[in-house]
Amino acid sequence: MDISLLAQFTVNGLMLGMMYALVAVGFTLFFGVLDIIVFSHGDVVMVGAFAALTGHYWLTGIYPDMSMWVELFFISCISIITVAAFGMIMAKTMILRLRSASPLNTLLATMMLGTVLREAVRLFFPGGSNPKPFPVLLPDISASFGDFTLRFDSVILFVLGALLIVSLHLLITKTKLGMAIRAVAQDEETARLMGVNFTLIVLITFAIGSAVAAFAGVMNGLYYNEINFGMGLLLGAIGFSAAIIGGLGNIYGAILGGFLFAGLQTLGAVAMPFASAYKDVFAFGVVILIMAWKPTGLIAEKTSERV
Amino acid sequence: MSTNTTNSLSGVLCSFAFAGVITALMTAIFIVESQLLIAGVLLGTIGAIVISSKFGVTSIILKSLGENENLSNALAVLVTLALIVIFYDDHYVLFILCTILLYSVTVLGLNIQLGYAGLINFSGAAFFGVGGYTAAVLSQYHSIPPILTLVIGGIIAAIVGSILLLPILRTSGHYSALVTLAFALLFKVFLDVNDSLGGAQGVDVGSFTLFGWDFGNDITIGSYDVSFYVPYVLASLVMLCVVFFFVRRIERSWIGLCLDSVRIDEVSSSCFGINIVRWKIVAFTIGNFVAGLSGALYASILGYISPANFSFGDSLMFLSILLLGGIGNLWGTIIATAIVVVLPEKFQVIQEYRLFIYSTLVLLMIVYRPVGLLPRKTRTYRPGESS
Amino acid sequence: MSDSLLQCTGLTMHFGGLAALSDMSLHINKGEVLGLVGPNGSGKTTFFNVVSGIYKPTCGTVIFDGKDITSESPQAVYNHGISRTFQLSRLCLELSVFDNIMIGNHKRLSRGFISNIFSRRKFNEEYEDGLKRATHILTALNPELANRMFDVVSELPMIDRRRIEICRALISKPKLLFLDEPSAGMTHEETRQLMDEILNMGSYAKGLSIVLIEHEMNVIKRVTDRCVVFNFGQKLFEGTYSEVIADPAVQEAYLGKEVE
């Protein structure tokens, strides 16, 4: 295979991986603090993209000749803030109530919650049942190396995503808030006894995770220039897969899982050029194999049971 | 084996009366077209249930039905037969009946997996679909008798399921959920892109033929033109009865006890000699077989299937029915299936919003009444016997 | 030691770097009640888990009734005739009393599809037999409980749950019974009552060897023939109750070193 095509695939794979990692991080954060899978997280990404689109309609209505960068900044802020608030409300009204339910019930309930979000956008967003064009807010510059074109907007998005992950990592490991989140994740009872406000920390965690998801949604819209109400289901499934194969409750695992899944999809497309439509079949097939090989994920969750 | 005969007469009468009411209610729901009237009937039903619960009538009915199970089962069959007779020429109603019966079969299969052995299966619709596609392929060969087609459909589903056995046995909890979830998505994408099975457009399924008689043609009995769906409804009813009997017997045997024990506590199960691996394999395989079995018949009835019939959303619907009816309660499953299937079909106003309303309802259900409509009862191995 | 039923030699169990059990050798004779005492975390429960097959020992051997059962699966150990209760009650709370007891009777139940589902004659025989035996043991333990055979366990008080656990362990007629802190979560009075009941089991307890983990020293005093004191995964002392309480090393382990 020629080198420029390979480079193209690598860049695309990295972009996808960054998006998946951002989604998977949310899954693993929520699992950390509450021990439940919030499957609707993929649809929260979709809501983030639609929130940004709404922001775009609104802003361009008021200031038609706003510069690209300013608008990008503002619609990202709008999306992140609304979705973070939405995540907190969701956690407070729904997710916290599900804690006593069985793992199956919570999984099913959050899947239903995802369906509700999806359907709500389809039914109540103007023209929501059709794919919506997403505004182009990044300069359309690209550099060509032979057959390989590096789009400038991809580079920006990738760098922004990486910065977000690094700052999230710093937040979790270096700040007092991060310490509280880790304490809750490790042992809720003890954290409470040590004076950590459990509900508050859970809500903040949901705000953070949802904000990251909103960013992933904006990123998705900018990258594909199109969003639709159903995009969250597959993103959620992939984010969940990534968090699980990485090993739940571990942020590095989620990032690893995200890039791994994107790598698998890319590999599927490269290795089977005659049948690149099978790339998802291949990726999910390998996910099943990984589960057979490493039943608790690549970076195993620490569990112990007292007999 | 002493069934109490003294108070059974009133119980029998009560059961008969209840069966009559259900028949009348179902008939009304099927006949009425006006959305306003449908809403009226539904509200009336809900009102009647609320009021009768308040005055203890519901518990009397449940007690009467539970007292003599054989009679109750026979009455349920009778109600279905009565509906078939009433709607003998109505393709639409008969098709809905088929759907209820066969979805119930599939959910009973999932019940063995999840309700008893605690194995979560997010690809129920996929195994349902394996059965369907098997029927589609086999229908090209007219010499295969229908019953064999169904059984092969079930067997293929069980074989496909066995691919997942290793990861399922090794994982637990959320990790195990991922395995079937990944398979459900994989299966749907596979069908979409695989041209030899019709791709996203789908594939025709030939109707059943038996001794030169084509199930796809209407039948004339005397001066009545009977819908071609009638034999299919009867076949679906037989299938539900057989599977129901089988699942009931599993529950009321040591097999059911072992499965329960495996679900609740693997460590203590193994300390009392229960072979966890064996029972998980048994439960998973039987469940998939049952799903494939019903899928094969359903595809033959539809006459045409496409990947859209077997999406992840459908798997989710099967699981929701199980949860809605009350995990482990077989009658709850059938009632929940009827509600989930009939409501959006008849209540056209909500057609557009049905997924929205339905997922909201399931969500609320899980939050506020996680045991479902009819919670599972404590096991009695030999019903009717007072201990 | 011809009448030795269980013979453990050099049992060692490492969890990562932690030795929960190191070089533990002990035996139990037929018909004997052996008490295991020692502070929390001294390896008593680990010993149970290793012998009953939940953990595979790092090294050492377990000989039961003349057969080497080291590292066998819990299922195999049960089938050899060792049965147990758990420190934290592990009953199936949503099942009936009868169901829970029948799980313990698994050895005698047929697992085939024919007898369970289609031809129910064999099932009915097993059912009658199981019900009779369960009633017999429960009556010996507590006659009132025997009348609640088809009640859900979650509705019963702690002491009844302990009784059911013991009944579940006894119904398979094991040769050796492990009782892991049967008094945990109960009052002194309840514990006394329960131990009386176990000792009065009559035919079911005849010839049965029991290994008992217990913190209540008066229970140990009353029911055990011999005691083994655990400390830091090792055997600190072995002897009768009166020898144990007189031993200065045991006193030190329990009460700490005396300050002079």
Summarize it.
The complex is a heterotrimer of chains A (307), B (387) and C (260). With 307 residues, chain A is mainly alpha-helical.
Provide a descriptive summary of the structure in words.
The complex is a heterotrimer of chains A (307), B (387) and C (260). Chain A is built from eleven helices and four strands. Chain A has 307 residues and is mainly alpha-helical. Chain B has 387 residues and is mostly helical. Chain B is built from 16 helices and six strands. The relative contact order of chain B is 0.15. Chain C has 260 residues and is an alpha/beta fold. Chain C folds into two domains: 168 residues, Rossmann fold (3-Layer(aba) Sandwich), CATH 3.40.50; 78 residues, no CATH class. The chains are: A mainly alpha (307), B mainly alpha (387), C alpha/beta (260). Chains in contact: A-B, A-C, B-C. At the A-B interface, helix 4, helix 9 and helix 11 of A face helix 8, helix 9, helix 14 and helix 16 of B.
Helix content of chain C: 25-40%
Number of strands of chain C: 10
Gross morphology of chain C is globular
Q: Regarding quaternary structure, how should these chains be classified?
A: heterotrimer
Helices and strands of chain C, in order, run as: EEEHEEHEHHHHHEHEHEEHH
- What does the average pLDDT of chain C come to? 87
CATH topology of the largest domain in chain C: Rossmann fold
Physical arrangement of strands within the biggest beta sheet of chain B: 1-6
Per DSSP, the total helix count of chain C is: 11
| CATH superfamily membership of the largest domain in chain C | P-loop containing nucleotide triphosphate hydrolases
Query: What count of domains describes the coordinates of chain B?
Result: 2
The level-1 CATH class of the largest domain in chain C: Alpha Beta
Mean pLDDT of chain B: 89
* % residues in beta strands of chain B: under 5%
Instruction: Work out the helicity level of chain B.
Output: over 70%
Strand tally of chain B = 6
Task: List descriptors.
heterotrimer, B: 387 residues, mainly alpha, 2 domains, two-stranded antiparallel sheet, 16 helices, 6 strands, 70% helix, globular, disordered N terminus, C: 260 residues, alpha/beta, Rossmann fold, six-stranded mixed sheet, four-stranded antiparallel sheet, 11 helices, 10 strands
